[in-house]
């Protein structure tokens, strides 16, 4: 196959010092925490892909149904000749649902998982020969910059999957605030946001019967071992996910089954029995609540699509001013 994708590498070495320091500072804080971006090594990205196919995990199929049924309306709102920039493009699967209706001139996938990104964007370029496909390996949670000169024409950021839910509301506002200056006035943001709903539906989605979410959570420990040299034993931890109604968020934790001491990069970390490592938050919003947050960052609501059960929302926002 030809080299159909233009690749822009903005990612410093994955196990570089600053990532390791970030990891350690979370492990050494009280309570212990770890950024969910550490989930996404190659195996983690594959497991996340499998999560999206679990019957209990409604967000993916619901958002895909919205994208499919609203594609023409989305094309109308976005307009022609867009440069679509997907933040955390993963398998680049959702964008396919929009390409025929939208006919953008360019697609830029940005993801932290380099090999996965390259495979996915190469497949996309092969399947859509008329599309100018770019791939940027970067950690967009830290810094965000479009590849120079590539995103000039009508940039529209695409941030599906309720990935925004990984940020606290304060972080989400700051993130949108950093996205704002990268877009010209009238530039767009098409963003998927999971909605507040019955906690039993939410909790089932993060505790699938096949145990894929548990494997995804526990894979973080494998990564700590292989990439960061931790001496821990994964079977001494278990998966826990629950809805925290006060904070409107799903929390995922790794629960230490025993009292133990682990060593990572020269530091020793003590776990009491039952103590947890908080690995992820997944915030849920009301439509109004999310619009308010986006408004604080300078984005105006332009269009909204939801499914009939109101499980999930897709917002089209425009950069103001
Ligand atoms: C990718 C952050 C949207 O929060 O639902 C899925 C990640 N974690 N199952 C989510 C996830 C466990 C997912 N996001």
UniProtKB/TrEMBL annotation:
Q: What highest taxon heads this organism's lineage?
A: Bacteria
Species of the source: Billgrantia endophytica
Under PANTHER family, the record lists: ERGOTHIONEINE BIOSYNTHESIS PROTEIN 1
Q: Which NCBIfam families match?
A: egtD_ergothio
Q: Name one GO molecular function term.
A: methyltransferase activity
Query: Which keywords does this chain's UniProt record carry?
Result: Methyltransferase, Transferase
- UniProt-listed InterPro entries: EgtD (IPR035094), EgtD_Methyltrsf_superfamily (IPR051128), MeTrfase_dom (IPR019257), MeTrfase_EgtD-like (IPR017804), SAM-dependent_MTases_sf (IPR029063)
Q: Which residues form the Histidine-specific methyltransferase SAM-dependent domain?
A: 21-318
| GO process annotations (BP) | methylation
- Identify this protein by name: L-histidine N(Alpha)-methyltransferase
**Gene3D superfamilies with a match to the protein in the record:** Vaccinia Virus protein VP39 (3.40.50.150)
In the UniProt record, the gene name given for this protein reads: egtD
